[in-house]
């Protein structure tokens, strides 16, 4: 019978653990409204991020930057009198961990919405769970086309231009400037790599050689060797920052010097340069895209605003494009909350996002509508010169089908004087 | 489960003076367990129910592993890979036929078959060589999924098509029931299996192969059978994990999972099914605890790494304080009391 007593004890232990934490969580769910995560004074939002693991390089700075922007908004009175609490959970870029931490955020912490969950393989696995629980899933930090399925996932919206759109823009650059050169492709072995390749091939036709990598294996020697052997002169990289550095470094080691053309998500020169260490000069001349102001553009009013917030609320972290990205996400979310009104609930938030009309730091418009849930509509090309990325040409917009890659006309908006979007 | 003597070979000498305890039939313990679990699912909040379900899934594999390692003395570092086999089989079958009972059956069958193959090789190997072989199996999982990425979809993995549970039950409660139903059935079968002749064979082979052979026990057959039984349990656990997460990916079955499983059964008490329950509980509770500690300490980056340290420390402490594992603590205490009377 002692063993039964042991079993009973363990059961009681588990139950107590459950109750203690439930007590903590109920502070968030109680209050005047019946909307999960929303009280009269607070809105709780959650995210999953690779703070550790193979994609942590660079990306681990995004969520703290978003949080810093929210802290700035909170210090300026919050949104409709409510302060935003941002719960950041580390999933290590491991889809299995994402499952657990997102369940914890939704079921235990009772967040109002999931914001900017990062990663194609990671976030893909929680789409169904978020849909079943009717949790708004806003501004996913990835450009996979999976976020843009309004019928299947009505609550999911992207943020980045989707990888096919970006691939088409990169392809157009190659077609116009590097015509006749042998173009090859190295991509992550998931929807990120595949969508990007699809875009490049829509413009250029089939590439001469293509290789893929997995984040669980930090060695791209065989892939770069194969691309060198194929005689590639241009290599398109659909890689996370750590693997951009690895690819460029590995290529240099085997005396392989193609023109690298890199997807935006893996192209921040500060992050990649740091990973390359003494090899940072290898980045010179690398072409990439961006759709937000560049961190080094001191004259840009958005950069001035974000730098100020970074100094005041983010411990003056090294100011790179991940911070610009994180704060832009925060700005957009506050815009959406303002638009959703004082009596905010999940449906109103989604309505506000669908209605769109957001003017922010982006160089191109956001695409959100009832039939389109993808994020930014395009991007502008950048080139690394003197260790800094600089824009050239004009921003382009296009779609993920066979639409043309067209120059975008229109001036970017200026930030509001106090840095907080108006209702 | 009371049928199993929880002691590893080294501590058998502590028993002779103690009076023989009355044995409760395993079925009774299982029924009590089932009642407790069902009661729990009604009082726990959803996330705790999800964790309870995860404990159930872990219980399947730790129970199978403790029979293999604790009772038969075969060290397997590859049970994570066997779980992956079960999980991927469930995912592939489910996406093709959308028939959950069929998918579960297939998952167990395929894993059993894979376990038989590994077991055949394992029966020829001893000690570190066996550990090496099973280690290789655990390491190969991510490579297999990226080499055959058209079937397994590499690191991203597969999502699993599932029909929602009947409407009157919340998802997490349903998951807890399913996982614990499977776990309790697995454990009941194991308990019945090891209390009879098969269990004696297992222990005889573990303690002295020559003596066992002299007693007419077929060593290789016993070892292969032990591996197959244990693999089938891992297959059930893997299928449950795929069901719980609605997705499978190699990241869910890393090498550390196999090592954690082993650590869990050692901490719980090697060879004891109750120890396996403790182990399963720890596998869920320790990472959660260390995560909240990491959060309170204010370092987000600690969360990902702290669980490893905590597990190590707990292993050291338990081995120092109760070498027989957590499951041996009650009997140690009662023995102390009896001695002091």
Automatic annotation (TrEMBL), chain A:
The keyword Transmembrane helix does not apply. This is ABC-type branched-subunit amino acid transport system substrate-binding protein. Keywords: Signal. It comes from Actinoplanes italicus. Residues 1-17 form the signal peptide. The keyword Signal applies. Coiled coil: none annotated. Residues 413-423 have a biased composition (Pro residues). Residues 43-387 form the Leucine-binding protein domain. Gene3D superfamilies: 3.40.50.2300. Residues 398-423 are annotated as: Disordered. Belongs to the leucine-binding protein family. It holds the Pfam family Peripla_BP_6.
TrEMBL record, chain B:
Signal peptide: none annotated. This is Branched-chain amino acid transport system permease protein. Keywords: Cell membrane, Membrane, Transmembrane, Transmembrane helix. It comes from the Bacteria. GO terms for molecular function: branched-chain amino acid transmembrane transporter activity. The chain crosses the membrane at residues 24-44, 50-68, 100-122, 129-148, 174-194, 224-245, 257-286, 306-329. It is a multi-pass membrane protein. InterPro entries: ABC_transp_permease, LivM-like. One of its GO terms (cellular component) is plasma membrane. It comes from Actinoplanes italicus. It is found in: Cell membrane.
């Amino acid at each position: 019978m002692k063993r039964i007593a042991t079993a009973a004890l363990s059961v009681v232990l588990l139950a107590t653990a459950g109750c203690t934490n439930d007590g903590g969580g109920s502070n968030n769910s109680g209050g005047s409204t019946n909307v999960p995560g929303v009280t009269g004074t607070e809105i709780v939002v959650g995210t999953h991020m690779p703070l550790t693991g193979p994609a942590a390089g660079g990306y681990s700075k995004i969520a703290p930057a978003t949080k810093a922007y929210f802290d700035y908004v909170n210090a300026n009175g919050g949104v409709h009198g409510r302060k935003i609490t941002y719960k950041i959970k580390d999933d290590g870029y491991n889809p299995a961990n994402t499952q657990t931490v997102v369940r914890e955020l939704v079921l235990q912490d009772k967040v109002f919405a999931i914001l900017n969950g990062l990663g194609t393989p990671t976030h893909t696995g929680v789409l169904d769970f978020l849909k079943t629980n009717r949790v708004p899933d806003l501004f996913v930090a990835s450009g996979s086309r999976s976020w843009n399925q309004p019928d299947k996932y009505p609550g999911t919206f992207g943020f980045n231009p989707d990888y096919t759109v970006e691939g088409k823009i990169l392809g157009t650059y190659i077609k116009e400037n590097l015509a006749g050169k042998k173009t090859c492709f190295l991509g992550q072995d998931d929807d990120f790599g595949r969508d990007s390749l699809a875009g490049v091939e829509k413009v250029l036709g089939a590439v001469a050689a293509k290789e893929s990598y997995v984040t669980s294996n930090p060695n791209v020697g065989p892939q770069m060797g194969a691309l060198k052997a194929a005689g590639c002169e241009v290599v398109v990289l659909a890689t996370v920052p750590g693997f951009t550095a690895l690819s460029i470094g590995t290529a240099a080691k085997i005396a392989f010097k193609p023109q690298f053309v890199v997807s935006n998500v893996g192209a921040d020169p500060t992050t990649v340069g740091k990973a390359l260490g003494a090899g940072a000069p290898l980045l010179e001349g690398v072409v990439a895209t961006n759709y937000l102001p560049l961190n080094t553009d001191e004259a840009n009013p958005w950069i001035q605003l974000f730098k100020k917030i970074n100094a005041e609320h983010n411990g003056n972290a090294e100011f790179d494009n991940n911070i610009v990205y994180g704060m832009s996400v925060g700005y957009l979310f506050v815009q959406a909350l303002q638009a959703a009104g004082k009596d905010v609930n999940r449906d109103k938030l989604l309505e506000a996002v669908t209605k769109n009309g957001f003017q922010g730091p982006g160089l191109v418009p956001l695409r959100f509508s009832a039939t389109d849930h993808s994020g930014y509509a395009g991007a502008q090309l950048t080139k690394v010169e003197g260790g800094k990325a600089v824009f050239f040409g004009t921003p382009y917009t296009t779609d993920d089908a066979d639409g043309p890659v067209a120059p975008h006309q229109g001036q970017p908006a200026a930030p509001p004087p106090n840095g907080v979007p108006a209702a | 489960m009371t049928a199993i003597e929880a002691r590893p070979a080294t501590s058998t000498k502590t028993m002779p003076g103690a009076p023989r305890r009355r044995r409760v039939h395993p079925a009774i313990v299982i029924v009590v367990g089932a009642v407790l679990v069902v009661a729990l699912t009604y009082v726990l909040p959803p996330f705790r129910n999800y964790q309870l379900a995860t404990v159930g899934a872990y219980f399947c594999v730790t129970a199978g592993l403790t029979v293999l390692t604790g009772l038969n003395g075969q060290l397997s570092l590859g049970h994570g890979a066997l779980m992956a086999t079960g999980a991927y089989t469930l995912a592939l079958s489910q996406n093709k036929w959308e028939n959950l009972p069929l998918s579960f059956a297939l998952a167990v069958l395929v894993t059993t078959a894979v376990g038989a193959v590994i077991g055949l090789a394992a029966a020829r190997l001893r000690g570190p060589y066996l550990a090496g072989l099973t280690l290789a199996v655990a390491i190969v999982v991510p490579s297999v999924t990226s080499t055959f990425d058209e079937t397994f979809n590499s690191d991203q993995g597969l999502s699993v098509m599932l029909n929602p549970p009947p409407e009157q039950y919340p998802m997490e409660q349903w998951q807890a029931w399913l996982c614990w139903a499977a776990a309790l059935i697995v454990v009941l079968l194991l308990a019945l299996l090891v209390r009879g002749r098969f269990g004696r064979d297992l222990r005889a082979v573990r303690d002295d192969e020559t003596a066992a052979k002299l007693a007419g026990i077929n060593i290789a057959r016993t070892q292969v059978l032990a591996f197959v039984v244990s693999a089938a349990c891992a297959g059930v656990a893997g299928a449950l994990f795929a069901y719980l997460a609605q997705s499978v990916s190699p990241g869910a079955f890393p090498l550390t999972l196999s090592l954690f499983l082993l650590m869990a059964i050692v901490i719980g008490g090697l060879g004891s099914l109750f120890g396996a329950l403790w182990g399963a509980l720890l596998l869920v509770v320790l990472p959660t605890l260390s995560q909240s500690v990491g959060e309170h300490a204010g370092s987000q980056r600690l969360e990902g790494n702290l669980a490893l340290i905590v597990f190590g420390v707990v292993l050291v402490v338990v081995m120092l304080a109760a070498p027989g594992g957590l499951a041996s603590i009650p009997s140690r205490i009662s023995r102390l009391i009896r001695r002091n009377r």
